[in-house]
Amino acid sequence: MRAAVMYGAGDVRVEDRPDPEIVEPNDATVRTLASCVCGSDLWPYASMPATDTGRPMGHEFLGVVEETGADVTALKTGDLVVAPFTYSDNTCDYCARGLHISCRNGGRYGFDGVDGGQGEAVRVPYAEGTLVKLPVAADADSALLPSLLALSDVMTTGHHGAVTAGVGRGDAVLVVGDGAVGLCAVIAAKRLGAERIVLAGRHEARTALGREFGATDVVAERGEEGVARIRELTGGVDKVIEAVGTRQALGTALGAVLDGGTISRLGVPQYEQGPIGPAEFMRNITLTGGASPARAYIEQLLPDVLDGRITPGRVFDETFTLDRTPDGYRAMADRQVLKALIRP
């Protein structure tokens, strides 16, 4: 099969790799209909040391079951399934608590002999616990596919931010970041009843989409100027979703949140130390969030995707064939594309 492999910073290649096979009785193999490049893929794309072996890439995919192991009974050949961005058994104590990201038997695509999602097919461990069967036909041309694919990561991650921030009806919410996750956090906050949603971002095409998703205000300024503008508009907010992962973004969140408020961090932190000293302590701010347990949320959000109440697939603004995956990385790294959809 053909699949994308990263060999170092800026070096993504599409090459021939062994076709996936059933290894364990709980495995399934999935023929990919759609995958994508994630914003988190851009961090190794910018900094990964060169290697001779490479790393299979991609952790968001949707496809058709081709083969199942002997222990897999709830899935069959031909089923259309979406894969959350990590695999999990859905039976351990963490999974029972809705924390599938911490599954005791789970793992990440592209590591430990497991295929990446940016390829023609994937072996999925713990298939029954991981894959969610979709109640629609396996039609590669379906207009629903991009929004169903978004459930693998960006939409469930945006929802995780809104849930952990405690967003509810009538709330004023700040979303820091106009990337795909930030825009999906706008969808999630609106879905949970937020009355005012301020989107901090400076890319006009993206913030325009954010307004269509439900943002009531857009703040393009950054740093202290941005915080001042947010406070001028709102007087400060109780709920913040930080969807970037930089110190500057965290600073904006801390500057805009009211004492006693909650900040949910969704962006993978690109820093090791942050402001957690006496000043923050005295403000009784709650810092929460983290990597989304996507599997826990897919079935909650799926009905709203199926009936068109939410359309997170609109964050995919350009489609690339699998062989053009390196172009998709470049386009996203250069901010020419919001989120690249990949078709085999």
Explain how this protein is built:
This protein has 2 domains: 2-153 and 293-343, Medium-chain alcohol dehydrogenases, catalytic domain (Quinone Oxidoreductase, Chain A, domain 1, Alpha-Beta Complex); 161-289, Rossmann fold (3-Layer(aba) Sandwich), CATH 3.40.50. The protein starts with a strand and ends with a strand. Strands 3, 5, 6, 9, 10, 17 and 18 form a 7-stranded mixed sheet that branches. The protein has helices at 42-47, 93-96, 127-130, 145-150, 154-164, 180-191, 204-213, 223-234, 247-256, 278-282, 294-306, 325-333; strands at 2-8, 11-16, 28-36, 55-56, 61-68, 80-83, 86-87, 107-108, 121-124, 132-133, 172-176, 196-200, 217-219, 237-242, 257-265, 286-289, 318-321, 340-343. Helix 6 (180-191) runs parallel beside helix 7 (204-213). It has 344 residues and is α/β, with parallel strands linked by helices.
